[in-house]
Every structure is written in structure tokens, then in C-alpha cells.
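target protein:
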Amino acid sequence: MKKEKVLALLLTAAMCTTTALPVFAADFADDTAETMAVTAENNAETETESTDEVSTNLEETDPEVITEDSSGEYEENQVSSEAEEFQMADTQIADFSDAITEEDTDAVGVIRATVIPANNAEVTGTIKRQLAPDYYRIDLTTGGTLTLKGSKTGNANFYGTLMDAVTEKELGTFDKRSWEGDCLYDATFELAKGSYLIKIDNGTSESSTETYVMKTKFRANAGLTFAENSNDDFESASSISAGKVIKGHLATNNTSDYYKIQIPATGEYNFITKNTAGNNSTQYLYDVERQQLERITTYGSREQKMELTKGTYYYHFTTDGYTKDVGDYWFKVVGHTHSYKTSYSYKATPYNNGSITKKCSGCGKTISETVYRPETVQLSTRSYTYNGKSKKPSVTVIAANGKALSSSSYTVSYEKDTVSAGRHKVKITLKGRYSGTMGRYYVINPKATSIQRVKGFKKGFQVNIKAQSKRNATGYQVQYSTRTDFSNAKTTNVSGTAPQFKGLKGKTNYYVRVRVYKKSGKKTYYSSWSSATRVKTK
């Protein structure tokens, strides 16, 4: 019987040409109390009233879009034709639940719903217990603000639920309880483009039949910088530049917008954010590696200044999980490149840190910088072997913070003689931000010599040493032993190159080796030993 009634309703609606859907006034403020009275009267007549009073315009009216004129105010595109309006005094759309079968879904599980316009629609209905909810579908070709406003009569529960038409996920509710009696309701939803279901029932209530009126109003998004759902993650982030005003919209079912910002130069940047509805929102700033740098909470509006280096950043605008923090927003990034001049300085020494105070000539911002003391001197080479050529190691000065000073922060000077074997000093004279001197030593070791000949004689021997220059040698050391490992050796310093050793054992084998020594200051430096030579005394 229900299916036959549905067919009859549809046929009658197609034949009806003299009535139209009532529309709202521009201010969305019609006399709701009067509507409730008319609704109650019509409900009493619904059982006998002919279905030819139902207009097909309810399903055919397109969702209305509100545009923004040059003055910045929104103007509603309203339906004015008499052929497109219902006369509330003459007819009402009553009890839409009667147009739904006992099951809420069709053969493939899709919820049956009456399609209504998103803007300036008005429907009435009754709900009998929980067995026959009313379903309405609204199709949005663009995102925006949907307002559902109306009234309910009687002492029964009224449950209104907004759902995604595809996923059937609940997006919000607008409920009124039985103890509130006759009352009004008003619910606003920020939505992305798509299809939505409105479900109206009385939950578990088994009280008297409930009568309701529901009106729709829709304001489409206008002036968005980027299309909806076009920048929902890092990969699809919208590219922007500093100084440009960006307008966006966060919806109940679209809670994240990502932007990719190019910072042209190192400096201070001001992130100016405003939520047009005065709601809260959260912004995250990431570096090019998508590492979080900053979390900003905006309460209505906010300015957040940050020091940024030149490069690429990501800016994430989100509700951060708070369902009410939706709606329009705008922001811009204003950059300022500092021009600092030193107003005070205290030079660092090898014993104390220094400091520098700078002031921006443009904005007056003052910064202080610690100049860490030069702590150590590193030489490229600490030890050489004499070869008759100059030896000058390169120098690196390391500050107390572990960083190397610029080579422009000091000069390097060497001793006059950088050729001779011995110890040599490098002098570092600090300049610029630094003051004082530092020193470091390096060594040129003597070059080894060799034995030219060893000749034995009665209870002794003579060794002839290859002569070395005075730059390489102060003298020579001769070491001899009766053992090849020189474990019982005797060592003697000599100045000449043909020293003799007497008073030894006769007819005995001795092993002889020599090396160079060089005195430098209070220290003596030695070359390596020559190869050992065997000699037999007589």
C-alpha cells in the first residue's frame, strides 16, 4: 500500500502546475510562529486533502548560490516567479514520511530521500515514533555555509542529523527534546561541495505525532584563492609567495589546507591570520623536510612574527580536530629584511668571550651576539723531517664553541729560519672581533746520516760518518755493542765525523750505528739510527 501511495504522490505532483515552493525573505526571518500555526492546521487536514497540492518544484529547484557584489555584501538570488512559489495559506507539504516505504533504503541499500534546494527551501512534516524517519537530500556544487532553521511542535523528541550522502557519516545534529515543547531550532554547517542527507526522526520516543518545519539557506564560498579540496596534503600544497592575501575555507568534512611558501631572503616574517567567523584555528609551519618548526593557535585573529632563513616552507591551516573551528579564513605573510648596524661591541680574547649588539635601521630590532673566545690553534703538520727547504704549516684557529674562525680574523707569522732542524714557533695575531696573540710550535727533525766506513785496530775501531750541514746537525751520536740487538750498547756524542773508540776488547766483533742530533733552545732533537755495521777489533 505504501508503494502505491508513493506512485500516486509522484503522478499528482507532475500534474500540478498552480502551486510553487515557498521561499524565504532575504533576511531569513519570517514569522515562524505563524508557520507553526498553519502547519498544525494543515496536519489535521492532511488525511483527506488531495495529493494534487504537492508541487514538483520541490525536486526541480536548483541549489541557490549567493554571490558577492562590489560592495562586499552578499546578495541572494531568490526565486520570485509566482509559478515557483507555494502559497502557505493554501497548501503545505505535509508528512514526507508518507512518501517513504517501510524500508529506508532501496534494493541496493541507498537511502531514499526527497531532493530539496540548498537555499530557500521550506518543508513541513510529521514523524510517527521512530519507524519512519524523513530523509532529505541536498546537492552542493560548491562549498559554503548551510543553515537549517525551523520549528517543532508537540511534546516529543526531535532529532535532526546531517550526514554525508555517500559515506553516511554523521556530520552534525540539531536536536530538540520533548520537554522543550513547541520551540525553534537553528543549525549552521560549513560544508565542502558534495551531496548530503538530512534525517529527521524522534529517536526512541513513543509519544504523540510530532510536526516540524525546516527551512534552508545556503551561502556559497566566494573569492577563494584556490579551489576547494585542491590542497589537502603536502603533495598537493598550493604555492604562494610572501605579501599575497590568501583566502580559504575549512569545512566540517574538509579540515586541512596546505600551502607551500617561498621565503626569498633571511629575515623576520609576520604571519597575519584572521577567521571571519571569529573561530579558533591552528596553523603549523614546517621546513622543506616537513619537520615541524612552529605551532600557532589563532583565536579570531593573530599576528605571529618569526625569524626565517631563505628557503621553502609549508604552512598547514587546520581545525586541529575541533569540529566548531570551521568557516572562512584569510592570511598573508609579510616579510622584512633586516639591515643591522653594530651599536656596541666587546672584542673576544684568548681568555674571555666578547659580544656585539646590533640594531636594525629599518625596524629598530636589536640583537646581541656572543663572540666566543679563540681557544686553540691547529697546525696542518706538527712534525717535519729536514730536507733543506722551508717548512710553514697552515693554521686554523678554533673558538670556544668549536667553530673555526674566519682566516680574516687573524694574521700568521713564522720565524725567520723555517729551514733548520729544531723547534719553530708560529705566531697568531687576532684582529676584527678579536684581540690578542696566540702561539703554536712545530718541529723539523734532523735528517738521518750513514756510516761510510768502520776500521778496526788494536782494542778499538774508527768510524767515518757522512757529514751533515750545520742546519741539520749540531753533532752525532755513535752507539756500539757486542750484540746485534744493542741491548748492552754504549752511546757517545761526537762533534767530528771520524771519531775513534779505544780500550775495547781485542779480537771482538762490535756492531756500530750512528745518528744526528740537533739542539734547539733547551731541547735536543734526534734523527733515526743508521743501519748497523760490524767491525772486529785486533
Remarks:
- Helices lie at 2-15, 32-45, 57-60.
- The radius of gyration is 48 Å.
- The chain has three helices and 37 strands.
- Residues 1-103 have pLDDT under 50 and may be disordered.
